Amino acid sequence: xxxxxxxxxxxxxxxxxxxxxxxxxxxxxxxxxxxxxxxxxxxxxxxxxxxxxxxxxxxxxxxxxxxxxxxxxxxxxxxxxxxxxxxxxxxxxxxxxxxxxxxxxxxxxxxxxxxxxxxxxxxxxxxxxxxxxxxxxxxxxxxxxxxxxxxxxxxxxxxxxxxxxxxxxxxxxxxxxxxxxxxxxxxxxxxxxxxxxxxxxxxxxxxxxxxxxxxxxxxxxxxxxxxxxxxxxxxxxxxxxxxxxxxxxxxxxxxxxxxxxxxxxxxxxxxxxxxxxxxxxxxxxxxxxxxxxxxxxxxxxxxxxxxxxxxxxxxxxxxxxxxxxxxxxxxxxxxxxxxxxxxxxxxxxxxxxxxxxxxxxxxxxxxxxxxxxxxxxxxxxxxxxxxxxxxxxxxxxxxxxxxxxxxxxxxxxxxxxxxxxxxxxxxxxxxxxxxxxxxxxxxxxxxxxxxxxxxxxxxxxxxxxxxxxxxxxxxxxxxxxxxxxxxxxxxxxxxxxxxxxxxxxxxxxxxxxxxxxxxxxxxxxxxxxxxxxxxxxxxxxxxxxxxxxxxxxxxxxxxxxxxxxxxxxxxxxxxxxxxxxxxxxxxxxxxxxxxxxxxxxxxxxxxxxxxxxxxxxxxxxxxxxxxxxxxxxxxxxxxxxxxxxxxxxxxxxxxxxxxxxxxxxxxxxxxxxxxxxxxxxxxxxxxxxxxxxxxxxxxxxxxxxxxxxxxxxxxxxxxxxxxxxxxxxxxxxxxxxxxxxxxxxxxxxxxxxxx
Length: 755
Ligand code: MIC
Ligand code: SF4
Fold this sequence. Notes:
By secondary structure, the chain is an alpha/beta fold. About 30% of the residues lie in helices and about 20% in strands. The protein has a seven-stranded mixed beta barrel. It has a six-stranded mixed sheet with strand order 6-5-2-3-4-21, sandwiched between helices. Strands 16-15-14-17-18 form a five-stranded parallel sheet, covered by helices on one side. Helix 1 crosses helix 2, helix 16 (about 365-380) crosses helix 18 and helix 16 (about 365-380) packs parallel to helix 19 (about 465-475). The radius of gyration is 25 Å and the shape is globular. It starts with a helix and ends with a helix. About 55% of the residues are buried. Iron/sulfur cluster binds near residues 141, 358, 446 and 447.
């Protein structure tokens, strides 16, 4: 039986009437995304023609998921809210803190020793507040959610940007910061700007070497890392229904890489098969009962241009496998063009390592298709040129692929199997030699490939591809190898071709697992004590941030003007820093150390205006803090893209940065800044970015009349005494202005729950 089946029954019982009411209010057919949004409006909200990309709307999500690296902060905040139990079903997943070094068992053991304090904290908070706890080794949050919790037509939020993976099962699943999760767990409404809608029509059918991954790699190439911002992407068409449920999950997962709020697919037979095979025939039966409500109205898919803001059509019959990268997931190259493109750009073409798995591509189907290629190595007298590594997405998948002999096939090509965890995807790859910073190329089936992301080496060129293509390129050891047309030389000196991959959508013998790694919470957790050692280096209870002083902000110093891409990885790096995710002061020592200083093109080197000398960003900021001087951070386009980690907002808040002024923001990061009581502003005129000088002091005026839709004025005083006055826009609504005034949303929640 599925978890929380009563909740699912209730959602389905209420859904048809809510959808009908919305259809009536709008007087037109509805997309699937709208059906799910309208059926999850918060009680204080009635259906109306909300403005896409304009109206802030309150929702009541069905559930919350958190991974260990973000759960610490989310739960430290939740503990301050003063509630005895979470208001909606919630889970914690231990997946981000496990290194990939030797192999699964040993690495897991090291993690459970090293991070014992954090795991114990998460387990006891979960136990106390009624939260399901998935132990280290159980698997990666999004795979575990897909296998156990996602359900068609549901709405969930998760403290991880790839929460969107659950769209593969027809949910609206949205990545948020911990403070948002805290609201929902405390029983409060969750606010989101009513999204725009992008429709993607998939015609034809996947075949040969092409995989679901190639759909999203292609889409990323079309839309770029910003193109999905503020939008839900809804896939439909024969190409969608003919694809596996887990393949749909992969596509939705990487919707995070185009900045989309989330992505989803209508309920179909593939979802029903997946639900049944993962022990949830009960959910499949319930979904079958209201199937018409779990997909768009027929008119919508017949005339998508009328209902979506943008429609893209992709023909799967002719779609080629793609390789996206290096350093950004939207640089898409069809495999047949790689020779040319790599040569033109001087990319290193020897593939050193191929890595498959992660939350993005760990399905039984993915693994079985990769295995069909690995088998050909022995059959055709080949040797695998690159190293090959696997991070299974869950213990259930790992156990099943071991039972079915797949791990044996992989070990014959020298593969290493790491723990069921994020590992190399999040910089927890203790790669031998990475510290030498040599230029090299890797290919992986993960989702992100920002600089340093996998192994900490800025000169690792990482390319994202399907598990099938990763496996083929690892065998060939060559980035320019096109398995569709090229041959390899075998041990007899013959030219051989790899046959196109084949595999099973689902295990014919069903999934199996001995210990899935789940720990249910206490029925009554009131007597559970959550202890945090005040001397801990890894955990620190939170002190509320100070409220706004009630005046304009005067003489802020420029801390850094960041140049170019500044993702949350640049603002709050992962890898070795993950261990401080529960300790705000300690993790603040990584603040913005990856951002490039516009004025000297260096990372982690900024001018301290008090002394005139250069120092690291955290040291400089701490010096301003000690002197009681507020600062401002200036950024470029799509600032804060990438992950949901609210540390990227809490660290500047904690260290005394008052304003982040950019050309544009990524959605989750902008919300995270607002939640923590910061000012997130954008240049009204993007060219004003050029007016910011290294020694600027900056006033922010207009705060005493801070109001929705009214820009603020910034006065820049340059070193020579001259000044520039510029306008800054913001997207704060009245509620968010209250967060700013209170010094952070949590200061308000605490009062609401107590009062
Ligand atoms: C990521 O893929 O970058 C992460 C690590 O999963 C993050 C969350 C985090 O920073 O903890 C994400 O995508 O939100
Ligand atoms: Fe983990 Fe990587 Fe997935 Fe993030 S993207 S949840 S780090 S596997």
